[in-house]
Design brief:
Elements lengths: L1 H20 L6 H11 L4 H13 L16 E3 L2 E3 L3 E3 L10 H6 L4 E7 L12 E4 L4 E4 L8 H13 L10 E6 L8 H12 L5 E5 L14 H17 L17 E5 L5 H14 L3 E4 L14 H4 L4 E4 L3 H14 L6 E4 L5 H10 L3 E4 L1 H6 L3 H15 L5 H4 L11
Parallel strand pairs: 3-4, 3-13, 4-7, 7-8, 8-9, 9-10, 10-12, 12-13
Antiparallel strand pairs: 1-2, 5-6, 6-11
GO molecular function, one term: dihydroorotate dehydrogenase (quinone) activity
Enzyme class: oxidoreductase
Membrane topology: Single-pass membrane protein
Length: 402
């Protein structure tokens, strides 16, 4: 424990000095000093330290609008670029502005549960370095709605003093482990945090909360959506809403798993179209273990959800299927295995209007964000697309990339 504490102190101190000296998140100092130093720590400690460094304002900033061709509009909202930070990194709304500052076009916090809960016993996060992957079984560790509410309130109350960055903020909601009435947990989340959200996510696809994925069933999903839509729609009422949100309501998205049968996908698409849900996040981590994994079995067989490079193909196939089943009418955020501009472009062609990443930051640090954006801008130009929206779902229209 003493060695772990010492490494944590060194990592934070080294990160502070390095980030202060670095001129950008793509600096060689960041890539060759900070990231190897952080990887001396166990994965969860490194995650906690990374959030603390970001929340301390030590990350250098880069322009989120550096590539005009990446600007896009979804749900009537202006995104400077389509690359977002997936839920799971900033679980408690501690470092939104820092992550927008490194170039993300949008940041999604959470999952946030109504009541604070510790999650599953440690260790619960594992790096599969040979596969550029991560297995986690966090189990919705959350500081709860009150904490997230306070952080979001502080952010908007005094933006100048807190490094406020303009950008889209999504709120990802989960349920407490012991809750029987899951819908009530999501309704509480909407009531408490909805006024801060540019979009709201109902996360029913984590494999680490018992019974959660059963909510993806047709009847269960339909009943859940009915209740959360009522709560969401009430945000637009004058008695419920602040002046900033009065008369409008945030889009409601559902986050689904990649481990779905064709019948499961058809049922989900049918419910979401019938209930007029606003969009999908595809997908969460997978409980499958591809035969191509290179890491030791002692790691690959850990219980939990697998993310990172091995998830890329399965997640993209799920994006492709859901785009087809929803007839391209529901915007999709594609997530899973994105570490290059080519990966992002692949998901956009398959039907994603926006793309998220998380695990690639574990291996490449925040400097990966502008690199992905630069490559994506190049690919759009090379393939004669004038905008991201032109490329969304293009492969379904017979397009083949150059």
């Amino acid at each position: 424990m003493a060695l772990r504490s010492l490494l944590a102190a060194v990592a934070v101190g080294g990160a502070a000095a390095a980030f202060s000296a670095a001129s950008s998140v793509t600096s060689p100092v960041t890539t060759h000093l900070v990231m190897p130093l952080v990887r001396l720590l166990d994965p969860e400690t490194a995650h906690v330290m990374a959030v603390r460094v970001a929340a301390s304002g030590l990350l250098p900033t880069t322009r989120a609008d550096a590539h005009p061709s990446l600007a896009t509009t979804v749900w009537g909202k202006q995104f400077s670029n389509p690359i977002g930070l997936a839920a799971g990194f900033d679980k408690h709304a501690d470092c939104i502005d820092a992550m927008l500052g490194v170039g993300f076009g949008f940041v999604e916090i959470g999952s946030v549960t109504p009541v604070a809960q510790p999650g599953n016993p440690k260790p619960r996060v594992f790096r599969l370095t040979d596969d550029r992957a991560v297995i986690n079984r966090y189990g919705f560790n959350s500081f709860g709605l009150d904490y997230a509410h306070d952080r979001l309130s502080e952010r908007v109350a005094d933006p100048a003093a807190r490094g406020f960055q303009h950008g889209i903020v999504g709120v990802n909601l989960g349920k407490n482990k012991t809750t029987v009435d899951a819908a009530d947990d999501y309704v509480q989340g909407i009531n408490k945090l909805g006024k801060f959200a540019d979009y709201i996510v109902v996360n029913i696809s984590s494999p680490n909360t018992p019974g959660l994925r059963s909510l993806q069933g047709k009847q269960e999903l339909g009943a859940l959506i009915d209740r959360v839509l009522v709560a969401r729609d009430r945000l637009g009422l004058p008695s419920q809403a602040s002046a900033a949100v009065r008369g409008r309501v945030p889009p409601l998205l559902v986050k689904i798993a990649p481990d779905l049968t064709p019948a499961d996908k058809e049922d989900i698409a049918s419910v979401l179209m019938d209930k007029k849900v606003d969009g999908l996040i595809v997908s969460n981590t997978t409980i499958s273990r591809p035969a191509t994994l290179k890491s030791p079995a002692s790691l690959t067989q850990e219980t939990g959800g697998l993310s990172g490079a091995p998830l890329r193909q399965l997640a993209t196939e799920t994006v492709r299927d859901m785009y087809t089943l929803t007839q391209g009418r529901l915007p999709i955020i594609g997530v899973g295995g994105v570490s290059t501009g080519d990966d992002a472009f692949e998901k956009i062609l398959a039907g994603a209007s926006l793309v998220q990443l998380y695990s690639s930051i574990v291996y490449d640090g925040p400097g990966i964000v502008p690199k992905i954006q630069s490559r994506l801008a190049e690919l759009l130009a090379e393939n004669s697309f004038t905008s991201v929206s032109d490329a969304v779902g293009a492969e379904h229209r017979g397009f083949r990339r150059k």
